Amino acid sequence: MITYLINLKRANDRLVSAKETFDKAGINFNLEVAIDGKDLSLPHKNYSEVKYNLLHGKKTNLGELGCYFSHLNVLKKFIDTTEEWALVCEDDIEFHKDIVEIIKNALSSGINFDLLRLSGGSSRNKEIGLPLKLKKIYNGFFLSLNFGFKSGTGCYLINRLAAKNIIKKINSMSLPIDHAMDRDWVLNHRSLTISPAPVYLKEELHLGNSYIQAKSEYKFPFYRRYWIMAPYRFINELLRLIYKILLYVKIKIES
Can you list the alpha helix ranges (DSSP code H) found in 118-221? Predict the structure, then answer.
């Protein structure tokens, strides 16, 4: 397994914090200098602004473009290695002390997956993504299947199949990276999660201190947002539910 840390060149405080986090967990990483949204301009050949505006209901945030293409760059570099798995991390995370054992046990659980979501939301006490527990893998941690949208790409484990699918199918951006990656039925691979999340977001770096700044001022007014976005999200969540039910049945049959 190879590990990548995505970090903006100008975010040295986050790099220092991340190094301490990784050293504490005993994990070596390869530094990926993130694409800075401040260096991007529109129009961009790999970005559909119209689709983003309609499907996400927000004005363009160049920080989100930088984040999106930074993750794609990491996956492209991973594909050029001979490693079977990559741990992809952003720089505002903190690991559970047993993160290495948790990952090892997930890989040896007997339940197949291509993408494993490891990070939670802003609150450590609130699960996101409506996870349904499949199997206990380590102490109080379970391999689970999300039945709802799971936001964030703070930390995830990915294999070569999923990386190739993402690079091929969503190389052009029309949604934020977490929305785009959370559509298994489009990407044609299997994603699971660990619940509770064994990777946390550091409050002092995440809440109110994000370099992406995906705040409410980017949202279009209500009367502009919901004509397209609401029907799209309804269909999206319906497809997610159908796909996850079928996947749950398949996993049960396999096991």
Answer: 160-169, 177-181, 184-187, 203-206
The reported pLDDT for the residue numbered 214 is 58
Contact (Cβ atoms closer than 8 angstroms) between residue 169 and residue 187: yes
Give the closest residue to 198 by CA, choosing from 84, 117, 105.
117
Measured between alpha carbons, how far is 91 from 11 in angstroms, rounded to an integer?
9
DSSP 217: G
**Gap between the Cα atoms of 203 and 149, Å rounded:** 22
Q: Virtual CA dihedral for 141, 1, 171, 202, nearest 10 degrees?
A: 50
pLDDT category of residue 3 using cuts at 50, 70 and 90: very high
Chain segment 207-250, per-residue pLDDT in tens: 555 656 556 678 888 777 888 899 999 999 999 999 999 999 99
173: domain CATH number? 3.90.550
CA–CA separation, 40 vs 6, rounded Å?
17
As a whole number of angstroms, the longest Cα–Cα distance in the chain is 50
Q: Are 91 and 19 in contact, with CB atoms under 8 Å apart?
A: no
Structural domain total, the chain: 1
**H/E element, 54:** helix 49-56
Residue whose tokens read 């199918």: 169
Q: Phi first, then psi: what are they for 26, rounded to 5°?
A: 75, 35
**DSSP assignment, residue 80?**
T
| Domain region containing 226 | 2-254
Angle between helices 49-56 and 222-254 (to 10 degrees): 80
